[in-house]
Prior knowledge:
By secondary structure, this protein is an alpha+beta fold. It is 23% helix and 19% strand. The protein has helices at residues 14-26, 91-100; strands at residues 35-44, 52-60. Strands 1-2 form a two-stranded antiparallel ribbon. The radius of gyration is 14 Å and the shape is globular. It holds the Pfam family NUDIX. It comes from Staphylococcus schleiferi. InterPro entries: MutT-like (IPR047127), Nudix_hydrolase (IPR020476), NUDIX_hydrolase-like_dom_sf (IPR015797), NUDIX_hydrolase_dom (IPR000086). One of its GO terms (molecular function) is 8-oxo-dGDP phosphatase activity.
Amino acid sequence: MYFPGGKIEPGETMEAALIREVKEELQLEFKPENIIYVGTVVGQAYPQHDEQTELNGFKVNHAIDWSRVSINAEITDIDWVHIDDVDRIAPAVQQWIDTYER
């Protein structure tokens, strides 16, 4: 399991990249003023275990109408995963959860 996301384009802010990637991957839109930066971790990439990845995490204060969410070809599934279900969570995501959500 991984969060929606992607690379920050040259000249793009983290917030603009978040808005763009979530729209591309989930067809969700929200405003920059609803974004709260939480923090960044550098951790083990998945599935490239010999590489590192940087996760910039945000919380978005915006109600989601889940019936309108539509995934693109990059996403295989949307699922709720318990925070302790570590076998289903990519290592860097687990590191982010341990750092900012516990």
